[in-house]
Amino acid sequence: MPELPEVETTKRGLKPLIVNRRVLSAHIYKKKLRWEIPSHLIETLKKKTINNISRRAKYLLIELSDGQLVIHLGMSGSMSVGPSKEPLKKHHHFELKLDNLTSIRFHDPRRFGSILWQDNDSQLKLLSDLGPEPLSYDFNNEVLYNASIGKSKNIKTFIMDSKVVVGVGNIYASESLFLAGISPKRVSGKTSKNRYQTLTHSIKKILTDAINNGGTTLNDFSNVDGSPGYFSQVLCVYDREDMPCIRCNGKIKRIVQNQRATYYCPKCQN
């Protein structure tokens, strides 16, 4: 699943290609994704200029004069920009044809992604309940520690809660906890403020490094230009079960937490 670094990489790749371009037409080829693509987009988007593209959590927001196109890549979604004359691929479900003879296309084989619309004077509920951005000043150890008070869930599940902080997905949660030396089994509400300070720094570093490396190449993800991300080449624990720890040479262990695979070093993380 594309996580925050992959979505940020997609946003950065799209921005110089689509901002200030005018939409000539919108096309819906398959309405049924995670939620149905609103039919009104065909008329709503016609002749509108794209003013900007931003990101909130794992959502891409293509900003126009009267609202935003809200896109989630789901499990296998991707965005691309290329000549409009190029043939569509099997799993292209949505297309915006632009005034320079290029098109923005949404590709999603598993159809867990979504394309929605929000007006400037309203906000979708799925965006209104989100926690702070992890790379912003709004996210710090005080925020993380205060949110943990009284919580009984394990710390990995806790930092993956989008109401606590957005964008810390499964891969980066495991990697951040390893960097911080914290066991994923530790109870979030029984973790000290000092350890949350270390963890906050680790989350910011892991996500920044992943963005700088173009995201992680696992399963279906690739960048806007089709090139892979390279952060998977420097993963320390994720998907490395029974391999030697880079710190202590002990074996990396895999467990399941909240129906998600967790990787950690029992010797280095406590």
| CATH class membership of the largest domain | Alpha Beta
Assembly category: single chain
Mean pLDDT: 92
Question: What amount of the residues lies in strands?
Answer: 15-25%
Please, could you describe this protein's structure?
Strands 1-6-7-5 form a 4-stranded antiparallel beta sheet. The protein contains 7 helices and 10 strands. Mean pLDDT is 92; it is low at 217-223. The chain has 2 domains: 4-128, N-terminal domain of MutM-like DNA repair proteins, CATH 3.20.190.10; 141-264, Helicase, Ruva Protein, domain 3 (Orthogonal Bundle). The protein is an alpha+beta fold and 270 residues long. It starts with a helix and ends in a 6-residue tail after the last strand. It has helices at 4-18, 41-44, 125-128, 141-148, 155-159, 170-180, 193-212, and strands spanning 23-28, 52-56, 59-64, 67-72, 78-83, 92-98, 102-107, 114-119, 253-257, 260-264. A hairpin with a 2-residue loop joins strand 2 and strand 3. Helix 1 packs across helix 7, helix 4 (141-148) crosses helix 7 (193-212) and helix 6 packs across helix 7 (193-212).
